[in-house]
Amino acid sequence: MSNIATTYYPQSGSLVILGAGESGVGTAILGKEKGFDVFVSDKGLIADHYKEQLKVEGIAFEEGQHDEERILKAALVVKSPGIPETVPLVVALKAKNIPVIAEIEFAAQYTDAKLICITGSNGKSTTTMLTYEMLKHGGLNVGLAGNIGKSFALQVAKEQFDCYVLEISSFMLDDMYHFRADVAVILNITPDHLDRYDHKMENYVDSKFRMIQNQTENDYFIYCLDDPETIKGLERNHSKGTYLPFTQEQLVELGAYLNANKTIIINTPNNDTFTMRAEELSLQGKHNIYNSMASGLIAKVQELRNQVMKESMGSYVNIPHRLEHVACIGGVNYINDSKATNVNSVWYALESFSTPIVLLLGGVDKGNDYSMLADLVKDKVRAIVCLGKDTAAIHKAFEQDVEIIVNSTSMQDAVVLSSHLAQKGDTVLLSPACASFDWFKNYEDRGDKFKAAVMEL
C-alpha cells in the first residue's frame, strides 16, 4: 500500500513540472514512467547535465520562460520548493483548481516504503545523514533523499528501497497535503525564511508541523521537549502517532533524555533501554547531543540493536560544510561550517568549541539579529574576520564584545588574516551566518574555497 492514496490526484494527462533541478528532473522521469504526458518548464537556464537527462528520457522541456498557455492546461503541477506560492503563475494555476504539489507528495503515491522524515531549522542534514548511516549499518535497505542526496522521485522510479530517510524543508511541506510520515521528526524551530510566511513566526511553525498532519496511531512523532517554539506549536497541532520527546533538561519515561551523569537514555515502546555516555558520541556539542538523541529514537523504533547504534553514533563523520575539520596547522584547527547560513546555526557552532575562536563571519545579510550571539562571542571569540561586501552590521553588533574585527578582500585573504590572528590551540571557524551570493556561487563553493585556502597556508 502506498503512502498516499492515488485517488487524490490525476493519474494521467498532462503533468507539468516547474523547475528543472534535482527534484524536478526526478519527478519528470517518474511521471513519464507512470504514463503522464510530461512537460518541464524552468524560467532560468537548465544545467547541462539535467538537460541531457531530459533529452535521453525524451521528455519535453523549455528554459528561460514559462509557456503559460500550455502550463495552465495541466492536469497536475509539481513545483520546485524554491518557487513561492505568490508567483502569478502559481496563483493562476490555483485559481483554475489545478493541484500544485511537491515532489515528495507526488512520489509518495508510488511507494509503499517506510518514510522517516526529518525537519527543523538547524541540524536537519546532520541528523538525516547520521540516521541514514545508522540504518544502513543496521542492515536496512534504505534510501536517502529530500533536501539531500538524489531526488526521491527518481529513486522511487529506479530503485527498490524498503525505507527512506528524507530531509524535509518547510518549503516542501507547504506543498504537501496527503503525505504521511511513518516517523516524523521536528528537531527545533527558530526564525528563518520569515519573508515566505508573512513575517509571522506562527505561520512558519505551523508549516513545520505539516509533518504530522496525516499520521495514524501506528506512526511516531519525535520532537524536542526543550524547544519553546515546538512546544508552542504543539498547542495548535496534533499527531495521532506515539509521541517520543527528547530532552537535556527533564526526565521522560518514553523518549530520550540526558541524565545527571551525562549519559543518554533512550526508551521506546516494547524495546530494551539504550544508554550511551555523551562523551562517546563522535559528534560533540550540546546541539549534537540533540541530533544524536533524535537519530537514536528513530533507530530504536526501527528496532536496531543497541550495539549497532553505539558503533554508528561513536564513529559517524559529519557531512561536508557542517563543522567539517579541514586541517590542524601550527597547532590551530581549521573548521569549515559554511552551511551555517543563519545566526542560530552559528550559535550552535560556537557552542561546540571550548578553545578560543577566530571567527569568519559575513556575506549577504538576511536582516540578521546578531544579539543572540553576544554572550558566546564575548566568551569565546578572539577575533572576527569579516567576509563579503557589507560588513557594517557585524562591526556594529560586536564592536563592544571583540577587540579585533577586520575586513577581508577574498576568502584567501580571510584565511591568511585568520592564521596570523590565531594562536596555538585556537580554532579558526568559518561559520558565516549569511548567504554566500556576493562572493560565491553557493555555500558549497564558499566552503570549498575556504578549504583550498587553508591547504595553501
Give a description of the structure.
The chain is α/β, with parallel strands linked by helices. It folds into three domains: 14-98, NAD(P)-binding Rossmann-like Domain (Rossmann fold); 110-315, 3-Layer(aba) Sandwich (UDP-N-acetylmuramoyl-L-alanine:D-glutamate ligase); 324-456, Mur ligase, C-terminal domain (Protein-Tyrosine Phosphatase, Chain A, Alpha-Beta Complex), CATH 3.90.190.20. The chain contains 17 helices and 20 strands. The protein has helices at 22-33, 48-57, 68-71, 88-95, 103-108, 124-137, 152-158, 170-173, 201-208, 228-234, 286-301, 306-315, 343-352, 374-380, 392-398, 411-421, 443-455; strands spanning 14-18, 37-42, 60-63, 76-79, 100-101, 114-119, 142-146, 163-167, 183-186, 220-224, 242-247, 255-258, 263-267, 274-277, 324-329, 332-336, 357-361, 381-386, 404-407, 427-430. α1 (22-33) packs parallel to α7 (152-158), α6 packs across α12 and α16 packs across α17. The termini are far apart. The mean pLDDT is 92. It holds the Pfam family Mur_ligase_M.
Give the overall silhouette: globular
Per DSSP, the total helix count is 17
- Which strand order spans the largest sheet, edge to edge or round the barrel? 7-8-6-9-10-11-12-13-14
N-to-C terminal Cα separation, in Å? 57 Å
Summarize the structure.
The protein has 457 residues and is an alpha/beta fold.
Task: Describe this protein with a few key phrases.
3 domains; six-stranded mixed beta sheet; 17 helices; 457 residues; nine-stranded mixed beta sheet; Rossmann fold; 20 strands; UDP-N-acetylmuramoyl-L-alanine:D-glutamate ligase
